[in-house]
């Protein structure tokens, strides 16, 4: 066996450092000469391995001599920094062996002796066909340690690469498969080679195999405790050993090494065998070591082979040469398995499998470099997370895609499905059967008229009475055309007998206005003309109430009819004026009722206000009509026109509906599409007190709960409408809050945000209650349940209750799809 250039042992514990003097000397001595394949030995200050050889050593005193009568030394094969290697003949067996002997000037260095002994013992522990065999170990008479090894007649891989340049890909895979087998055996026995390089892989021709691998030179091997040798004594010198062209980054940095350092060196050897040159070369030792720490080699683009096979081998090599040990193959067995799998794939011409394997290896290396050792677990967690996000995204899209739900403006539950304008007019009609008990009311009307004529009243007045009562009878039975005819006739007769400015005429004008309004909703009619007639009748009723009766409370119903008709005709400004005239009068009427109720019930003013049935239908119509107008146009109306002191305000629980209370100082209303305080005061005196849709619907819900019960249809719709108005308030408060935040008014923004959350919670409670009530209806409820659930979902989403919002939206979507 030909001995390579000098080697020495290495141990890379964290407390070991490269000698600065040695590094500088090496760097200065090689500035003009590229780094060659050699083992670098750095030692602590005060100890040198570069002492000159004595004259007898130069002349080689051992050639031609016999050692212990057993080994005849034939010739010198080579020498290095630690030892010389001789070719010797075993006298008894006539077999040639290699005899390695420590330099004489190192014989007094106990650490070198221990390293030499450790090499012999570690090699003797390794029994493998691809590892050189150590036969004997001892010390000569002049105290020089020696070992007897297997003599190899072959060539090192370094010489073959210099001769042939790039090696054949198949030949490379075969060589390194054997080298990995040898290295795997060494690692399993607790031995790290730490000086893998082409000159330490010898190719010996055996039979028909010219490339039988032998791994040699464990001179700087690291002995782990499992090998049966105490390695602690060999780590005290602070030395760093290795060949810079093949040293791992942790070796270059003087850190602890393990099996993955040998895997890095094996990757460097594979690269050089395929490319014909080492992977990383600097101008000197220091630069080369720096490249090993920070750079990756260039691609194997010049290798003459199938580019897919080269790419697959490149993935294996680059993974073996990863800078972080955690990103490399974690054992030689994994490296060997990757090489063997690649050989089998291309040997069987499985192009698809090889391509897939290459892609898999590439992505595996990328993920490991990016995510670390546990990349598979992290990738699986990321995949589960992405799948969940995709699932919820698709679910979210299916629920919120365009057209999956009606627009917010079309989610209207009309009040007329439970009570219409006709109910109010019929309720306001005169007593139709005061005395007589007849089979029908109409017969009672006619009998009343005949007896009026018989008692001496004028025929015209009697006829008016008959038409008056008969018109209400037709209206009560739903005969709109007949009712219109008799009401028009009755108004003419009333004017003829000078009662055209009476309360009865106000009732007839109201009824006639409602009949024209109802008729305008039919198909194939002159809609605008009928609406104009309805508007004219409402104006007549308002005029009579204002000028002749001097009672604004009686004008609330015709004002409400007028506002509704004007809104249909598109005159929103005039409709606003009509509704604005109702609100103060309505609050006064509630106050009057409030006072009478306390007087008749003899209760204290602190008791809770209770509605009664006397004017329930009229109040419901007014609250709902004004609330609908305010909600559609985002407008609030003034409740009080006179100033009063804030200190005189009572708590909310004892104040009459529609009147100012103490708690209103922190409330907001919707005015002209924006938000403003509900109660505006100057120097402690209230100037404006506003009521918007939420206030109107709140009074409507309170009235329906008291009069009709908590589970009635009226209550369900009132709560639904109240929820919509509160949601509108909250949305506008959010806009105001973000505007204040952009302007730097942080305290004002927080006040708006808190109010928004309060209104959203109130809206949610009302929508939930309305859903429960509407579900109890027997007919025409599915669509309205869906409307309520859609609005509930919107409010829950604004409250960031995502799970509840998605659940409500899912229920609403299913119900809405089946109802249509």
Task: Tell me what you see in this structure.
This protein has 820 residues and is α+β, with helices and mostly antiparallel strands. It is built from 26 helices and 19 strands. The strands form 6 sheets. Strands 2-3-4-5-7-6 form a 6-stranded antiparallel beta sheet, covered by helices on one side. The two termini are 93 Å apart. The model is unreliable at 1-58, 227-239 and 432-439 (pLDDT under 50).
In a nutshell, what does this entry contain?
The protein is an alpha+beta fold and 820 residues long. It is built from 26 helices and 19 strands.
Q: List the total number of helices.
A: 26
Binned strand content: 5-15%
Rg calculated over all Cα atoms = 52 Å
Shape: rod-shaped
Uncertain stretches? 1-58, 227-239, 432-439
Helix/strand/pairing category? alpha+beta
Helix content class: 40-55%
Distance between the termini: 93 Å
Q: What's the main sheet like?
A: 6 strands, antiparallel
Q: Strand order within the widest sheet?
A: 2-3-4-5-7-6
What is the overall pLDDT average? Answer: 78
Total strand segments = 19
């Amino acid at each position: 066996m030909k001995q390579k250039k000098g080697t020495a042992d290495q141990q890379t514990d964290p407390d070991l450092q490269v000698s600065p003097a040695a590094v500088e000397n090496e760097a200065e001595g090689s500035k003009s000469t590229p780094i060659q394949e050699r083992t670098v030995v750095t030692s602590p200050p005060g100890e040198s391995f570069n002492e000159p050889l004595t004259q007898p050593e130069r002349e080689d005193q051992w050639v031609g001599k016999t050692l212990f009568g057993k080994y005849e030394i034939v010739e010198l094969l080579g020498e290095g920094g630690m030892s010389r290697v001789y070719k010797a003949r075993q006298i008894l067996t006539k077999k040639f062996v290699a005899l390695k002997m420590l330099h004489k000037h190192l014989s007094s260095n106990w650490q070198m002796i221990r390293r030499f002994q450790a090499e012999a013992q570690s090699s003797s522990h390794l029994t493998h066909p691809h590892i050189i065999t150590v036969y004997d170990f001892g010390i000569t008479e002049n105290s020089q340690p020696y070992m007897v090894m297997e003599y190899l007649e072959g060539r090192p891989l370094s010489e073959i690469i210099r001769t042939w340049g790039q090696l054949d890909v198949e030949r490379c895979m075969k060589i390194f498969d054997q080298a990995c087998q040898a290295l795997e055996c060494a690692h399993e026995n607790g031995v790290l080679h730490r000086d893998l390089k082409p000159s330490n892989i010898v190719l010996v021709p055996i039979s028909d195999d010219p490339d039988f691998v032998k791994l040699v030179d464990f001179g700087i091997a690291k002995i782990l405790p499992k090998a049966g040798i105490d390695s602690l004594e060999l780590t005290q010198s602070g030395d760093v050993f290795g060949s810079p062209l093949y040293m791992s980054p942790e070796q270059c940095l003087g850190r602890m090494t393990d099996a993955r350092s040998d895997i890095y060196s094996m990757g460097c050897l594979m690269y050089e065998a395929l490319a014909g040159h080492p992977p990383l070369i600097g101008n000197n030792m220091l630069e080369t070591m720096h490249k090993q720490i920070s750079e990756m080699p260039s691609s194997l683009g010049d290798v003459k082979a199938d580019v897919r096979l080269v790419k697959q081998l490149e993935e294996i090599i680059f993974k073996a040469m990863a800078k972080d040990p955690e990103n490399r193959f974690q054992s030689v067995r994994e490296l060997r398995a990757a090489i063997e799998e690649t050989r089998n794939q291309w040997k069987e011409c499985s192009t698809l499998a090889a391509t897939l394997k290459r892609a898999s290896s590439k992505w595996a290396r990328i993920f490991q470099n990016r995510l670390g050792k546990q990349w598979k677990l992290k990738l699986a967690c990321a995949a589960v997370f992405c799948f969940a996000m995709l699932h919820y995204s698709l679910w979210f899209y299916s629920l919120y895609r365009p057209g999956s739900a009606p627009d917010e403006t079309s989610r209207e539950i009309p009040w007329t499905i439970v009570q219409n304008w006709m109910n109010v007019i019929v309720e306001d009609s005169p007593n139709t059967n005061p005395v007589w008990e007849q089979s029908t009311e109409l017969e009672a009307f006619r009998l009343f008229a005949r007896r009026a004529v018989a008692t001496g009243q004028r025929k015209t007045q009697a006829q008016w009475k008959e038409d008056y009562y008969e018109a209400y009878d037709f209206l009560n039975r739903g005969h709109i055309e007949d009712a219109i005819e008799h009401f028009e006739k009755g108004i003419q007769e009333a004017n003829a007998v000078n009662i055209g400015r009476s309360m009865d005429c106000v009732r007839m004008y109201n009824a006639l206005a409602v009949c024209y309004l109802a008729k305008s909703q039919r198909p194939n009619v002159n809609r605008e003309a009928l609406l104009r007639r309805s508007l004219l009748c409402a104006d007549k009723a308002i005029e009579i109430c204002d000028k002749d009766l001097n009672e604004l409370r009686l004008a609330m119903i015709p004002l409400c009819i007028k506002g509704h008709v004007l809104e249909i005709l598109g005159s929103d400004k005039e409709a606003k004026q009509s509704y604005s005239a109702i609100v103060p009068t309505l609050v006064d009427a509630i106050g009057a009722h409030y006072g009478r109720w306390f007087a008749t019930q003899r209760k204290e003013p602190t008791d809770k206000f209770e509605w009664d049935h006397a004017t329930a239908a009229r109040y419901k119509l007014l609250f709902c009509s004004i609330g609908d107008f305010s909600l559609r146009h985002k407008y609030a109306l003034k409740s009080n026109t006179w100033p009063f002191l804030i200190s005189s305000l009572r708590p909310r629980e004892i104040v009459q509906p529609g009147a100012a209370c103490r708690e209103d100082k922190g409330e907001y209303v919707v005015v002209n599409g924006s938000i403003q305080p509900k109660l505006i005061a100057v120097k402690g005196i209230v100037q404006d007190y506003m009521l918007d849709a939420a206030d109107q619907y709140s009074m409507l819900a309170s009235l329906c709960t008291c009069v009709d019960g908590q589970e009635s249809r009226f209550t369900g719709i009132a709560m639904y409408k109240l929820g919509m108005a509160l949601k509108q308030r909250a949305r506008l408060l959010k806009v105001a809050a973000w505007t204040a935040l952009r302007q730097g008014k942080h305290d004002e923004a927080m006040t708006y945000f808190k109010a928004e959350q309060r209104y959203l919670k109130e809206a949610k409670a009302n929508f939930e209650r309305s859903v429960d009530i509407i579900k109890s209806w027997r007919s025409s409820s599915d669509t309205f349940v869906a409307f309520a659930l859609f609005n509930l979902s919107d409010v829950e989403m604004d409250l960031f209750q995502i799970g509840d919002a998605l659940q409500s939206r899912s229920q609403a979507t299913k119900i809405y799809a089946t109802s249509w």
